[in-house]
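so i finally got all the pieces together for this one. its three components total, 365 residues if u count the protein bits. some of the lines might not be protein, just check the labels. i wanna see the whole assembly predicted at once instead of chain by chain like last time, that was a mess tbh
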Amino acid sequence: MSSVTEITNKKDELVDALLDWYDHHARTLPWRISPEARQGGISPNPYHVWLSEIMLQQTTVATVKSYFEKFITEWPTIEKLAAADLDEVLTTWAGLGYYARARNLHKCAKQVVDELNAEFPTQYDELLKLPGIGAYTAAAITSIVYDIPATVVDGNVERVISRVFNIETPLPDSRPEIREFAEIFTPSHRPGDYAQALMDLGATVCTPKSAKCGNCPWQEDCLAHELGTEADLPVRKNKKAKPTRRGYAFWAEYDGKVWLRKRPEKGLLGGMMEVPSNEWAPSNSWDNIPTPRIPIIANWDLLPGVVRHTFTHFHLELKVVRLNLEEMINLQEGEWCEIEKSNEYALPTVMKKIFVHVGQPLLDL
DNA sequence: AAGGCGGGGTT
DNA sequence: AACCCAGCCTT
């Protein structure tokens, strides 16, 4: 039988086993250098690691890959990114979500270029001061880029540690305890590879569902595996149900152009373009939603069907009103945008769904 | 301390 | 449908 003390006493052995596993199973990722290259004295590109880490916040590797490639193709260096317009950055980020990340990314790039001679700080505390870089990302850059020991705790690490030590306290209350154990393990030798190894283990072996314990280098020392509780860990506090909001969007098209407007810089989809709509009102049914006030005098049709989209904390249903203009009358704020160039606008996914709903094909970038 | 903040893959 | 993801920021 294992115990917490026995596991922590074996930490050096466990770290070695994980690094050995990583040497044989490390995934090849566009922003990553191989364990061999690193041990040959090569360091990863700080710009690449930073960019990838911002994109990977609450986002899977599979989703991030193509966006990462688009960014480094369009902006090969942090100087180029800093020189870009925010609207261009948001356009290239469109579809990746959590758009404050893109705004902070651009702000951080300008700050590093203008104030730090285009070089990222090597120290955790200095990285933490930069916009969009929190405890996780600062530790990730410190360890992965500079191979300086820093304790990386992300969702993967939370899961692995919760299982190894059979922590039954629900998240997020268990975070301090998880961090304590994670800090005990953080090695001074190969801290960068260790951090990536632990996250890779969580992403590919110690998965949320159907963990592949047979492939795990820590199988024999994992309390959850010994107790058979791995499928139940980590425990999370219950989440609130998502309400539904409903509203009407107005598709005003004339001569191949559609009227779009930019959303406020802060808040939901901040700084992104949108098809104008009325209020998204919380409601259990369309019966409670008043018939929309049409923004301009024009013939209009209510298109059949509903555009559905789910955000972090609510479901959205939009009905689309098509305005049949007889001349190119401006609505209120906004601009006429060429529909065929929809990929040149910062359109979030819900707005792309509206394009599809009205029968407009979307062009890929 | 709690809640806002996207979107997609997996089960 | 629910869950979760290489979290951060604001209030």
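The longest strand of chain A covers residues 244-254.
Chain A is about 40% helix and 10% strand.
anyway lmk what u think
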